[in-house]
Amino acid sequence: MSAPGRVHAFLRLFAIQGDWNYERMLGIGMGYAAEPLLDELRARDPVRHAAAVVRSAEFFNCNPNLAGLALGALARAERDGAPGEQVSRLRAALCGPLGAIGDRLFWAGVVPALSALAIAAVALGAGAWAVAGFLLVYNALRIGTSWWSLRTGLHEGLQVGGAVGRSWLPRAAERVGPVAGFAVGLAVPLAGRWLLRGLAPSAMVLAVFLAAGGVALSRWGGTHYSAVRYALVVLILLVAGGMVML
Amino acid sequence: MSPLDAGTLLLLLGWGTLVALDLVSVPQAMYARPVAAGTVAGLICGDLMTGLQLGVLLELFALDVLPVGAARYPDHGPATVAAVAAAAGAPWPERMGSAVLLAMLLAVLGGWSLQRLRHLNAQALHGRAAALAAGSLPGLRALQWGGLGRDAIRGLLLTALGLAGALLLRAFPPLALRLQGLLAAAAIGCGLAAVAGGAARSAGRGPRLRWLIAGLAAGLLIALSVG
User: Fold this and answer.
1) Which of residues 83-112 of A touch B (CB under 8 A)?
2) Does the model's ipTM exceed the 0.90 cut?
3) Structure pTM?
């Protein structure tokens, strides 16, 4: 596949969720990103190309940062002339593992770890630099992973499942969880101290009481509890109470 | 508190729209996170500290959310931009609590609007089903760009609504000054509950829980040692 085609597909990976919907989820974004990779097929075998375009936009779902693995592998399989049914089976088989590993690695690991470290750094006086650092590190990791994903998928084709299993991804997903736990734990007292500074002691007592109550509710409050609902109820009651007092 | 001029409001509107797009559609560079969205909004308003404070506070709520696939989750980005617009220029913690209340309402509305967007995207898909079945590349491109355009409109409307709310809050603060401190403290308490409750839930009983406790201990030590 041509270098410009790879670069275009890589850039389109950043909008892979641009048409997210409940029927095909990432399907349309995958089809759009696959277009430059399937371009060579158009001149060589127009019938196969049309069928490949149809398959490329079918249902798909996974973590967007690992979508390149599936995109590359499926495009390679189409180029190599794999039977259409086999391409569709590979597509379906990749959804679960790439979603599970990617969500653990990014949404439950890298993002909370870096975000919490940024909070801790802001609370310790790093200011906007902490936020810039968060964005730079996250995007370096994410862009590197996306490029590696696309390259690995294109290289491995139908064998991509085994390649993922042997790669650094499962180990990284396992190791980043404790790092995120530590970072979030570190951020909580620092953020509390920084945000509460200068408030009256009675206000601080209220904050600690509400924090403890919220944690207890999140543990034992059942499925109806959510942090946003809790905040809305508390704040609306306070505003209403304050207005009545006035 | 000086009024926000039209240029600032336009910049905030543009920033809120970009932030809304970043959450799901493009480019997911994480500037939709409240800590980033709030910092830039603070810079736009000429009050970086309020942007950082509200960004950090609302990030505590965002840390409770796993933005996974089909799940419905609050959209904190445009909400943070509006909250910063509501509180910029006021001394801490004046307006902070009411700004967080505005942000929570908008975040919930944003989550709902994201679901509506996904249904609208599915409707557009039905409209082009024949083209897709024929392997039409123009049909595919139209769907992709249509989805992006709809999300941009969603972000624009959400931010515009949030800025209107912010202007109202700036003009008519809901509580007397002496109660604003309590409201801010309540918002901070709820934020701490969100992040601590979410972290305890996701830690389970494995090694992550031990590391969470170690982090809490380290954070407490640092917080106490820096006074």
Assistant:
1) 99, 103, 107-108, 111-112
2) yes
3) 0.96
